[in-house]
Each structure stands twice: as C-alpha cells, then as structure tokens.
Amino acid sequence: MTDTDPSFASKDVPSTLMRQTLLDRELVRPATDRPVIRLLPWLHVVTIGGRSIMDRGRDAVLPLVDELRAAFGEYRMLIATGPGIRARHVFGVALDLGLPTGVLASLASTEAEQNGHILAALLAEEGVSYLPHTSVGHQLAVHLSASPAAVSNGFPPYELFEFPPVIGKIPPHRTDTGAFLLADAYGAARAIYVKDVDGVYTCDPATAGDGEAEFIPRVGAAELLAMDLPSLPIDRLVLELMGSAKHQKEIQIVDGLKPGNVTKALRGEHVGTIVYADA
Amino acid sequence: MVDQGDAGALHSLLMSRSLTDAELLEASDAAPDYAILPDANVLKIGGQSVIDRGRVAVYPIVEELVKAKGDHQIMIGTGAGTRARHLYALAAELGLPTGALNDIGTAVAGQNAKILGHLLARHGVPVVGGSGFGVIPLYLAECGAVVFPGMPPYDMWQHVPSEGVIPPYRTDAGCWLVAEVYGARSMTFVKDEDGLYTANPKTDPDATLIESITVDELIAMDLPDLVIERPLLQLMRHARHVRTIQVINGLKPELITRALAGEHVGTIISAA
Q1: Of A24, A97, A194, B187, whose CB has the highest number of CB atoms within 10 Å?
Q2: Interface test with B, best of A3, A86, A90, A95 (most B CBs within 10 A)
Q3: If you count residue pairs, one on A and one on B, with CB atoms under 8 Å apart, how many are there?
C-alpha cells in the first residue's frame, strides 16, 4: 500500500503537519515556529525544598508560611513542595528490592505530595488548597482567580514513565525540574527556589572549611554545568533544560531560613543566586 | 543481589548525600534489576501508519492480535495520528506551549485506544490507563492482552524541544517506557513500512531498508527523517531491561506473531 492509495488519502485531516512523521525538522519548522504565548504571565512559582525546608519542621516552616501569607494579594503563587528525607528512605527500600526507576519516581512523588498537603493545611485559612497534577495542569487559572495561592506536588507526573537515568536508578525528574517545566509551560513571571543556602557556592558551605566555599551570585546555566561542581543546591537537569525554555530564562535560588528573602525575590530583588539561560 | 552490607551502605548514602552525588549514583547503579512483568510483550500500533487507515489495515491486525494473545501476553499501546497532527498545527499556530500540546497527543492516542478496545472487547481485552495500570497483571493473566494509550502522561511538564513546540516524547517513547519499567520481554513497533529506511520511503524512492542497527550508529547517521521518535534512541542507551526494539510492517499482520516469537522480520534497533 502506498501514499497514492485513495482509501488512505481520503482518511487524512488536512493540516500543515498532515502525514508527516513529525521528525523531519525541515518539514516541521514552518508549521511550528510561532512565538509561544505566556498563558499565566502573573504566575509566581515558588518551590519549597523538602530536605532543606520541610524536614526542618516548625522552626523553618512556620516563619516561611507567615512570609508567604504576607505576600498573598500582591503575588499569585503556585507553591510546589519537594519530598525530602522520606523519599530517600523509600528509594532505599525500592532499590534494595530491585524495583525500576519509574516505580521509584511514583513512590517519591507521594512524599512530595504529603509535604504539599502539610503546607496547604497551614495556609487553608487564606483559601489555599492542595491541587493534584490534573488540576494544576488544567484548572490553575480558576483556582488562582479564586484564591491567592495553590500548593502542589513539585514532582512532575512522570511516575512509571520516568526516564532511565544516565547513571544509576534515581529518578532524574524531581521537584526542581517539575517546577521549572511547569513555570515555563505557563510562561510564569518568576521561578523561585527556596532552599537552606544563599544559592550556589563553589563547594558545599555546610561541609567546607572556613572561607573555602566561594559564593556565586549570578551564573549562566551552561557555564554552571561546565564547572562540574561536586554539589549544587538545584538539580542539574534544570540547568540542562534552561537552554530550550521558551520563557523561563532565569531562576533564583534563595535561603528560606533568612526572613524576608522570599518576599524580596518575589519583588524581583537579587538576594540569592540567579541562574540564567546562556546557551 | 546485593548483600545486606551493600544495602546498608546505599541507605546511608541516600540519607546523607545529594541525589546528584557520584558515589550515591554508582551505588544505585549496583542495585539489582527486578523485572516486574518479564513475560509481557509491548506492541505499539501506529496511529497514522495503522489506525488512520481504517478497516483495511485494522481488522487483520485485530485478528492477528486475538490469535497471538493465546501464546503471548501483550500490552498494546496506541499512537495518535492525523487528528493529532491537525491539533498540533492549530495549537502551534496559536502560540500554545508544548505542555498544552501534550494533552492533544494524550487525547488522540486515547481515542485510538478506545477504538481498538471496542474491537477487542468480545475477546475480553480491556483498555487501561493512568491509575488503571495496577490491574494490568490480572488482565494479562486472565485474557492475555490489554490496550493502553501510548502517550506519556507528562501534561504541562513535557520537555520543551529545542525548536518549535511539538512534544518530543510522544507515543513511541511512551510505549517503550512502559516496556522498560515493567521489564517486558520485547518491544515491537507496528507501522506501515518494513522497518527503518535511510530516508522516508514514502517520499524518497532511493530509501533503502536497514535490517539491524545500533542506537549509536543511528544517532551518528543523523538521518533527516526517522521511523521512530529520535529522543527514544537516547532513552534506550540507558535501558536496563528493553535494550532492543523491532519495527515491523503491520500491513503484513502475520509478522506480528512472528516478531512475538522472536523472529527478525523488520528492523532491529539495539542499545549495544
């Protein structure tokens, strides 16, 4: 059977991509090279670290909750949470049993969701709810028109469809990456990562000797990847994806243990490390 | 299998290190690989290449699947096709982002899964998706086959391509990822050509068939067009279970049974 077979041709829906494999770049380009619009240009995506913030409990979480609450009304926010230490535990259990990366991803995602429920409960009085992935992906506009913020699972909905990683079996798409992809898809105003360090250092300031760790206030994503630092406060995959992002050309990592930082970052002030797309 | 000492070491690395730590990643690499459904075979039925052709292509394939499921457990994933192309073109023209386009693939692959599901219903074959994946083992044991929409559920979290807005991980990647996560026995792509050619055989008369090739060779060739999604080749490089795939011609439906039996009847692409 060939393309000239009339029974086939008559069954096509006419379009500029009709009968393409969608893999020939020269053919796809003219049909898809329009600029991408920002769906929610007023959205602020604030990612709250699991280990760095949530696992610290009351001392770290309550002041941050107060700060977020104070910013409601001025900024419309999606607050994404990471899974923290319980994900490490469940990774250990599942790896020991030989389970694959996709299963690890779905197990860790449950933990990120639980931290989301905790944060949403603390903000419920302000009209904030936890939203599952389907609501975040499809009804965020109505939720953020009705309330100042919503909380969601930072992990993207990859679960069983998670990629096998380059080395080992730890799921590569985690909280930082999920929040980044979502912020870019919505064309959000800002993506802010709330951690327990000021941002990027040349080595881990928590373990390095005095004065050894040098702070990097502003750096290109590709440049930072090329530095191949032993540890980073943000997942490397975010840096890799920044080059192809349509809107999210800049993120900021801030220390959420220092009061006022998140508010300043929401205003656009430079208080941590800004990583920008340089590729 | 790792001994208890290794498991303890891995546990302490997980509790203390960053998830990008090299030693932690190496330790996770050494963990055993348990195949969840080692007897299952994943078959992807193309949308544009097969289902859009209608009865002339689909009925003989349905008949073949019904015969084959007596001997083999089959998870049948569906592609999207011509309606997805119309929607992708429309959405791209209107400036919608990749995340919004992902749903289009999901919806159309879902329609195709429903279509195949209705045709296979009298043979006891159900359609599953999302949280329904948990019952796949029961269905495979009871009736030998299930149908699922092949699009990965990435929604607004789909990767953005370096150029344009079409989701880079579509139903080829989705079906393979299902095969990989379940540790399936085989992954076969049922299309409308005898396999992979040096160019698109529908538009280039000089295209020649490649019977077998490695992923690395195929990436190095950088062909302008391809019978399977390019990003799948990168995923396959890191496969732990499904390191070979076969692309066959579903317009010769008997090839499905032969591919399930392990015969080389199309193009075999391997990770090593």
Answers
A1: B187
A2: A95
A3: 250
